[in-house]
Specification:
single chain, mainly alpha, 3 helices, 2 strands, about 10% strand
Amino acid sequence: MSNLFANIAPLQASLDYHMDRHNVLSSNIAHVDTPGYKPSDLARVESAEFANALGVAMDRTNAMHMNAGAGSIDQNGMVFKDLSAGAGNDGNYVSLDREAAKLAANHIRFDVVSSVVSAELRSLAFAARDAK
């Protein structure tokens, strides 16, 4: 028997990525008036490529430690400084218009993936009720 939720697992990872990116972008907007603040962004990195991007593999050194990446923002991507907006007079690199646009685009992508997940779950529920 195949895994019924195999189609949903990649979508869950996508939802997690967009949620993490939302948190990073929201933090940038919150620091729009902080002198010298440099905004961050989250680049999507597939898990197989993540170890190669860093050149190391994360490993637990003690059985009591948490799993590598568990609950961290790096689990779904790589945080980087986005200085492309340029610095203002106070050394702050946050452009409110740019960050708001990135946040809105990320929100739309999250909504699309959320709709796909809902449709997948509805079809599984339909099949579980013997198509009634």
